[in-house]
Amino acid sequence: MSKLNFELFIARRIFSDRENKRKFSRSIISFALFGIAFGLMLMILSVAVVTGFKKEIRDKVIGFGSHIQLVNFDSNSSFETVPVNRNQLWMSRLKSLKGIRHVEIFATKPGIIKTNEEMMGMVLKGVGADFDWSFFKENLVSGSIFAVSDSSYTDKVLISRQVASLMKLKVGDPVYCYFLNDKATDQRMRKFSVSGIYQTSLEEFDRLFVLADIQQVRKLNGWKPDEVSGFEVSIDNFDQLGDMTKKVKGLTIHYTEKDSVMMRPVSITSKYPQIFDWLNLLDMNVWIILTLIILVAGFNMVSGLLILILERTSMIGTLKAIGSNNYSIRKVFLYLSFFLIGRGMLWGNIAGIGICLLQSYFHIFHLDPTSYYLEYVPVNLKVIHLLMLNAGTLAVTLLMLLVPSWYVSRISPDRALRFD
């Protein structure tokens, strides 16, 4: 039997020793295992909930403005935009660019919704036949999505539940909106009809945007049939937003003719920096939580290992008497710690993954949408996160156990055997 197998053999015997379960160390080891299991469960839940919260909020913001908006270089940050021609030389190349999922036109016009009793500001967002309705279909609470055609226009609009509640509107009701034209002093009024009502729980966006046919915005602005505010570009991977924004910018500059309108790409993170800066702050909170939990779990295992070493003083003395060195005996207890940590991590994974799956499918824990922008606690359970959490917990805990394992070298065989 090799030296390595000998140490592993002893560690397994101690780990499976049923008599050991009746000793004083039983409660200490059980507490340490509970600390590992409970700590790993909390870490899994923390990472899953925070990443899930970030993903849900991020996807909702992107649903209103896509990943990248291409607008006239002369446009400012307001919703009164300078028009551009929808027929661009680079359009076909942009759509075929790797990483681009979808490109669509849009136009915006700020205005006021007014009823006999209430009035509020809003932004009329015009969409074309190429608009991707998937986001609003997922968040539709009543009514239906209106159809948009290039050959005709509709007076149907999509409003949020918040706007419908404030203005006392329901599906099928008329909506009177008022607009001002930059080139005229007269007020323009348009009558629309509520086609559907959506709810995303993002209060800032829900009370702002009203979706309509893009041809309605063109008429309000006095634009030509081929003029739009810009283009919305959706990409496949949000993590590549910075690189894709640079690629889109380079493509539009390269294929822009002399004396033609220059396009300016605006990423969603730069358009709404306050939201994404707030989401990025959540990462720091997660790291603080993970550090505190893993330190507490590690110290619990340190105390448990010290108790095990003290209980096995006579065994250590016997092993030293027959020729085992300190390094070999330390490995025995490190193997034993590995088995104990593994058991705790197993239960921690079962509990953490189980709670995540229950929440994902049954939405047990709810939230106040007015405060958290979500109706239930979101979870984003990924295999890579689980692997990193398990590997990190195991590595940090074992490194912390190297210190108490040095105590083995302070035990002399003669004192250990007399102690027994």
Topology:
Layout: H1 3-16, H2 25-65, E1 68-72, E2 84-85, H3 91-96, E3 100-114, E4 119-127, H4 134-138, E5 140-143, E6 156-160, H5 161-167, E7 174-180, E8 187-198, H6 203-206, E9 209-213, H7 214-221, E10 227-228, E11 230-235, H8 241-254, E12 263-267, H9 268-271, H10 273-311, H11 313-321, H12 326-362, H13 369-372, H14 383-405, H15 413-419
Parallel strand pairs: 4-9, 6-8
Antiparallel strand pairs: 1-11, 1-12, 2-10, 3-4, 3-7, 3-11, 5-8, 7-8
Structure commentary:
The chain is of the alpha+beta class and 420 residues long. It folds into two domains: 3-60 and 276-419, no CATH class; 74-261, no CATH class. The protein has 15 helices and twelve strands. Strands 1, 3, 4, 5, 6, 7, 8, 9, 11 and 12 form a ten-stranded mixed beta sheet that branches. Strands 2-10 form a two-stranded antiparallel ribbon. The protein is elongated. 34% of the residues are buried. The model has no long low-confidence stretch (mean pLDDT 89).
